[in-house]
Amino acid sequence: MEISSKEHTHFFSNNTIMPVDRSSFKSESSASKEKQSCCGGIKIFLGALSFVYFAKALSGSYLKSTITQIERRFDIPSSLVGVIDGSFEIGNLLIIILVSYFGAKLHRPRIIGAGCLIMSAGTFLIAMPQFFMGRYRYERFPSTINSTVSLSPCLQDKSQTPLSALEKSQTKINAGCEKEAGSSMWIYVLLGNLLRGIGETPIQPLGITYIDDYAVEENAALYIGCVQTVAIIGPIFGFLLGSLCAKLYVDIGFVDLDSITISPKDVEWVGAWWLGYLIAGVISILAGIPFWFLPKHLPKPESRKDSSTSSEHSKFIIEENKDQRTSYWQQAKIAEMAKGKAPEFSSRLLKFFPSLKNLFGNPVYILYLCASIIQFNSLIGMVTYKPKYIEQQYGQTSSKTNFVIGLINIPAVAFGIFSGGLIMKKFGIGVLGAAKLSLGSSFFGYLLLLSLFAMGCENSDVAGLTVSYHGAKPMTDYKEALFSECNSGCSCSKNDWDPICGEDGVTYVSACLAGCQASNGSGKNTVFFNCSCVGTFESSQSSSAVVGPCQKGNECPKMFLYFLVISVITSYTLSVGGTPGYILLLRCIKPHLKSFALGIYTLAIRVLAGIPAPVYFGVAIDTACLKWGNKRCGGRGACRLYNSSALRYVYLGLTLVLGTVSIFFSVAVLWVLRKRSSPQDETLSASGERDTCETKSRKDNFVNSDRLIQSTYWPEKETRL
Question: Which GO annotations describe the biological process of this protein (predicted)?
């Protein structure tokens, strides 16, 4: 009965259209009008989708730029920041299957619009803790905050409100511990990033397939290329926004900035990290608005009206009579999903395991998958903590670090991706050539990375941590080394971090541990006098010190310049191999398994690289910490000082080890290809026979149309620095 009614409706549709077709001695003006309408609709969608890609890339890169700010604001270690960063991938994975399967059957533009709203909600949620946590507190000696109180930092004189003041202060801190427990609000940042991942999910699969369905076939690739180009521009603005916000104090607008005693160069400085998330959230909302007014279907171009590449739904859509049959088709669709999809689902399920076996039985695919997983572990970990590495290794501010990455590194990545595709086209490179180019890119990229070991800065001279109070490197436990004869008469805490810079060029953990007896001035202009530990290994006279740590050595700015040059060349070199590697992936598998293979590939990269890499990189970086901060209610906070040499070896070493392992797998891929291919096969592949097979496969099954997406995109492309 249902089939019969469908046939009648189809017959009715044909009858309704017949007169139009008969009078299809249609004037040239009406034909051009329809073409213009079609092109106008797809171009509006293209513009809206490009803006969404820009918005999601901007918010994702902005998160990377605020890693150190979040760590300091919430007093959490790098490993926990890694979990927060990986939560985006978890959110994406939660609904990717549902969106990919059911999304194409529903109103795709509105689903993308809803995704933008969810993405903006997540972005706003990340910023919310700033408004509920109270003002940011950093460790500073009282006299640097309030000029009306003049306490001796050393507190040698027992009549000078020494321990009683400290005890009262400690009692006050303990009393506020229940409220301060709200510092666990980093959970909201994690949930917000998870929500961002959920909202971002439908944008790529539904947006690109919509373009592929309704664009003129020869224009589809160009449109998709435009979208991906805009996606690369997004991170540039994301890091530049991060640079701007890092210059502003975290509580700007809520406190008197003249009373702030730290500067952007201080380890405890936290910029207005939350401001960028509010801006990114607003941009996401604006990006989603056009999709609520776009139609579910666009008119098909004349060249594709009878094409079998159309989706299941567009085959039955006739725009001229859509209004008359809307209610009927809604009922038919529900009945079809309820009754007709069960057998189809069962048949697909039966084909799933043989397809999986076929896929994993392909040695080239498996080896390339392993190489990609390990390489993305290397690259994602390196990109996530690159701002932190530059700040700690070269003593740069967060603002300058983000500016450099956004303005220099990311354009190098974009140029590398473009160059890889250009080389492939210009030289007609086939499968074997793509494997060689991908391998060569990785090899020379990691070889360049090896040179960065020689471009580090020495540890800052910090008394009791990197140098002793007598100028020699400490050989014992760092905590014990904080105390010396010169400050033995002072009542100091080894947990404080309130650095001052002595006249001798050495940084002291606090004015008390420097043995300072008096201070003058307030805020950033505070000067400490009669510091018994300052200059003790040079002369017997006591010296003065000023607020804040001393700058790194004179050689450090030069090393930073060398690092930038090598980093940009490395970014470009590694990016050149991205496109050839992906073409290799597409051509090493059977045409009817392409969509399935690409889905498995993306899933594996997200699960085995996107989620774990930031976590274990963070754990490794934490091992290089020399001085941990302390939370107000006890417990370890964020790291205040890293061992520069250890940080360099851990960060670069882990990146290189993973990269080297991935190269071995790439060599294995090349070896298998050489063994299996003949010169004739290579010639056929280079001449484009594969493209013919892909076109035929596309006509057999519209599901394979998403290969256009994948051939120009791979996970984390826009942040491969």
Answer: monoatomic ion transport; sodium-independent organic anion transport
With CA atoms as reference, report the closest residue to 536 among 563, 502, 560: 502
* Boundary residue ending a domain (522, 551, 580): 551
Residue 711 phi, psi (nearest 5) = -70, -15
Q: Is residue 150 part of a domain?
A: no
Q: How many structural domains is the chain composed of?
A: 3
Residues near 558 by Cβ (< 8 Å), separated by ≥ 6? Answer: none
Q: pLDDT per residue over 30-65, tens digit each? A: 444 444 444 557 888 889 999 999 999 999 999 999
Classify the phi-psi angles of 161: left when phi > 0, otherwise alpha if psi is within -120 to 50, otherwise beta: left
Domain ranges, residue 544:
459-551
Beta carbons of 314 and 300 less than 8 angstroms apart: yes
Q: What residues have CB less than 8 Å from 260, skipping those under 6 apart?
A: 249, 523, 524
* Beta bridge partners of residue 531, listed in sequence order: 516, 543
Look at residues 285, 300, 315 and tell me which one is the last residue of a structural domain.
Answer: 300
- Selection from 169-183, 394-408, 572-586, 692-706 with the highest mean pLDDT: 394-408
Distant-in-sequence, close-in-space partners of 326: CB < 8 Å, separation ≥ 6: none
Other C-beta atoms closer than 10 Å to the C-beta of 191 total 16
Q: Are residues 376 and 488 in the same domain?
A: no
| CATH number reported for the structural domain that contains residue 613 in this entry | 1.20.1250.20
Full-model pTM: 0.77
Q: Are residues 450 and 464 in the same domain?
A: no
Q: Please check whether residue 231 is in contact with residue 410, taking contact to mean a CB–CB distance below 8 angstroms.
A: no
- 249-269 burial string, b = 16+ CB within 10 Å, else e? bbbeeeeeeeebbbebebbbb
pLDDT above 80 for 116: yes
CA-to-CA distance for 270 and 648, rounded, in angstroms? 23
582 vs 707: CA distance, rounded Å = 11
Token pair of 501 as six digits: 């810079």
Start-to-end C-alpha separation, the chain? 60
